[in-house]
Amino acid sequence: MSTEPVKSRVALFIDFWNFTLNMKKLDESFLIDWFKIPSAFIQYLQGRRLDGLSDALEYAGCEVVGSYSPHEVSLWNWSRTTLQKINGLTSTFLPRQKMEQGPVCTGAEHHEVPSCPQCGKPMLGYKEKGVDSTLVTLMLKKAWLNNYDVALLISSDRDFIPAISFLQDHNKKCVQAGFRGSGYELAQSCWASIDIGDFYADFKRGN
Hints:
Elements: E1 7-15, H1 16-26, H2 37-48, E2 56-68, H3 73-80, E3 89-95, E4 97-98, E5 126-127, H4 131-144, E6 150-154, H5 161-169, E7 173-178, H6 184-189, E8 192-195
Parallel strand pairs: 1-2, 1-6, 2-3, 6-7, 7-8
Antiparallel strand pairs: 4-5
């Protein structure tokens, strides 16, 4: 009597700006087909045949977390409409916070530079706040609810290392998906890592 193989449930957690900006560095003209992201990443991970993973992987959802500034409202609209049409995907885009202080010089007194010395334009832009903590919260919440066996983290940010260590201490496998030449410390802290450069053609728009 045949039995169903035990499946490893894989949940994707995507650091939106870290992922998209690194994709631009890899291929400036590349356009991401977000509808292909879940299957492309899980199929590639399946093909790696890593010890400790079952031969059958099951998609357990995708969390995308990013940020937007006041002139990027269209990005927020896209995240709430197009992006959330993808099966099992939930997006969270947070408003960036206005900087209260400009950058400072490297001199001993660390003078603030409130405006550009060349054109006079203000240096007070917007900064990302809460993205990493939101993504970490989602990883921990879904682990507590036992929604996945494997967390596939698409980021190169070392700030995720404490959360990764906690999850792996509590029997969750963490796989980092990153880019060659960056994210080494995060990759080293994870159970396994994969290089997006090896399969990014699988989620190219228009293919």
